[in-house]
Amino acid sequence: MSVIQELSRGRKSVSARRKGDGRWALLFLAPWFVGLALITAGPMGASLYLSFTDYDLLSAPQWVGLENYTRMFEDPRFVNSLGVTFTYVFVSVPLQLAAALGLALLLDKGMRGLALYRSVYYLPSLLGGSVAIAILWRQIFGADGLVNQVLALFGVQGQGWVSHPDYALGTLMALNVWTFGAPMVIFLAGLRQIPQMYYEAASIDGASRWRQFRSITVPLLTPIIFFNLVLQLIEAFQSFTRAFVVSGGNGGPSDSTLLYTLYLYLKGFGSLEMGYASAMAWFLLLIIGGMTVVNFLASKYWVFYDD
Amino acid sequence: MTDALTRPENARSAARSDVAPEPRDRRRTTRPRGRRVQARVVSVLKHAGLIAFGFVMLYPLLWMLASSFKPNALIFREPGLIPTDVDLSNYTDGWNALLHPFSHYLINSALVVLGSLLGNLLSCSMAAYAFARLEFRGKRLWFAIMLMSIMLPIHVVIVPQYVLFSQLEWINTFLPLIVPKLLATDAFFIFLMVQFFRGIPRELDEAATIDGANHLRIYLQIMLPLSMPALATTAIFTFIWTWNDFFSQLIFLTRPEMYTVPIALRTFVDSTGNSSWGSLFAMSIVSLIPVFIAFLFGQKYLVKGIATTGIK
After folding, report:
1. How far is residue B90's CA from residue B279's CA, in Å, rounded to a whole number?
2. B63-83 confidence digits (pLDDT tens)
3. Beta carbons of B76 and B94 less than 8 angstroms apart
4. Is residue B225 part of a domain?
């Protein structure tokens, strides 16, 4: 099903067949090889090198060793942005997945209107990353925004959510939860893969619906939960547009929405500290990679594989 | 789930409905009347809840649409959907609020999307053919590298890319946005097509080989025509992602005449602050319409695409 399964399948899929199509493969893969060299792997190596230098685009890079990396942890804005990002990711992703799973469970019964519900809930996922929605968010949670207008109907006096350091990040998290539709569709597909006969057998044995849910649905769905978790975590760490637009490009108020990639952008392309930005990019890769490895290791204890 | 793309949706749901209702009906006949009424009530409540929830979710969008027709002052006073005063001036004002008319940015975005579409369809299907059908040395390693590149954050490569493209004098052209797609760097789509190609019976290629076709002909005349669903999924996702893309367009396009829609919108926010939400909303709606149309017509492929590969 997934990239993850392909990767973890590893050595099993060795093809012992003749290696006879070399030239054709070279032809078909030519664009991809060039892209890998010039757009992906080459720049990756270059940015690793740049991360050990001082580089402002105008003069040649100056080797500074590990300075960029040590500087990160003495940079209060960086440390703050790391905290902001972790809060954002580890609060909003579980909420988003809980919403996705909850709705998928409610929808998966071959019920009437399933396709329509699925579309309605999925639409925000398609739009959520756009500038237009970020603009809308900024208005909705503004001082005179929709949220406060609705609160006023109930006699509650709201405040400028996006301009208050305690609440601004919450509005971004709300946006992330709002886009639960994509993982929900994956959950729905996963639920369909569970053979109906398991439930029939369990009914015959007198298992209650709750028992069936706990002993059939949940275990058989754990690979999908795991897959969604890994994917959404990786994606959330890279959120950029919403923080940029809602904060007006500076991560404010008081750096409370300064997500990692926004700070990276400001350093690299705002003040042209490209060596520092490269170091931040590699540290981000390290965080995401490390988190994914931990996820895989932990998965042995809770993810159930049928085969 | 590898075969979610290849198996026709309706066949699956038909198979399900053959199986599912029977035990339910049997249970229902043995169930007392009171329980049946109760199940009915639960079902109605559930639908009511789901509809209400969907409405709340979409409310901000609907409200933005309604507000785009309201005079500015009303946007801050009217949480309802029906405008008390309809006014198209937000659209005409917004259209001409920036240095260029908004159509200019729409055309720029369309050009970037078109180039990306062609690039992804061609280069990713070629690479996918090699991974799905050809045997060559190091295939497993290259395949693993391709899969891992899907997960690579763009931030790790963006600085050197910027340096490279500025040396080529490509900044403020659409080339930095299009050329990478021609080089199959959206590896996600390679993976999607590999999955699909693997589902096409090998007997077809073997028959063609016996008839003297080489790989180029098999790719062009067998694989591509049979892969329309995968190509459609690729096209729709490429369209939506490129249209919405902000980060790379923000970096590579800095001259106003090269701005795409997202960059133009962002400039609009900066230049007007909070004074003209009406026209800002109007142009936001304009920017969302193409995505919405793609969603309406491409839903089937979108849903299958995510279900197969798991990325939104």
Report:
1. 4
2. 999 999 988 878 778 788 887
3. no
4. yes
The answer to whether residues A279 and A270 touch, using CB atoms and an 8 Å cutoff, is no
Q: Is residue B10 part of a domain?
A: no
pLDDT tens digit sequence for B170-184: 999 999 999 999 999
A30 vs chain B: nearest CA distance in angstroms? 8
Q: Determine the structural domain holding residue B153 and report its residue range.
A: 102-309
Rg (CA), chain A: 24
Residue B277 within a domain:
yes
**What is d(CA B121, CA A113) in angstroms, rounded to the nearest whole number?**
33
Question: What are the pLDDT digits (tens) for A47-75?
Answer: 999 999 999 988 999 999 999 999 999 99
- The CATH number given to whatever domain includes residue B252 is 1.10.3720.10
Mean pLDDT of A4-20: 50
Gap between the Cα atoms of B240 and B236, Å rounded: 6
Q: Are B240 and B291 in contact (CB under 8 A)?
A: yes
Q: Is residue B35 part of a domain?
A: no
B247, A265: Cβ pair inside 8 Å? yes
Residue A169 neighbours by CB under 8 Å, 6+ apart: A84, A87, A88, A256, A257
User: What is the rounded distance in angstroms from the CA atom of residue A273 to the CA atom of residue A80?
Assistant: 19
In angstroms, the first-to-last Cα distance of chain A is 14
Please state, in angstroms and rounded to a whole number, the distance separating the CA atoms of residues A121 and A179: 8
Would you say the ipTM is above 0.90? no
User: Which residue has 């030519």 as its token pair?
Assistant: A30
Q: Of all helices (H) and strands (E), which one includes residue A53? A: strand A53-54
Tokens of B209: 């080989």
Domain borders along chain A are 49-302
Supply A211's token pair: 């028992």
Q: What is the DSSP string of B126-193?
A: HHHHHHHH---TTHHHHHHHHHHHHT--THHHHHHHHHHHHHTT-TTSSHHHHHHHHTT--HHHHHHH
Q: Give CA angle at B122 (B120, B128), nearest 5°.
A: 85
The rounded distance, in Å, linking the Cα atoms of B36 and B29 is 9
Cβ atoms < 10 Å from Cβ of B147: 20
- Smallest CA-to-CA distance from A258 within A87, A47, A140, A95 is with A87
Give the bridge partners for A113, in sequence order.
Answer: none
Residue closest to A35 by CA, chosen among B100, B34, B146, B136: B146
Q: Which residues from A are below 8 Å from B291, CB to CB?
A: 126-127, 130
Facing A241 at nearest CB: one of B246, B299, B311: B246
Domain count along chain B: 1
Residue whose structure tokens are 């053979």: A195
Nearest CB partner across the interface for B266, out of A144, A245, A281: A245
A49-302 homologous superfamily: MetI-like (1.10.3720.10)
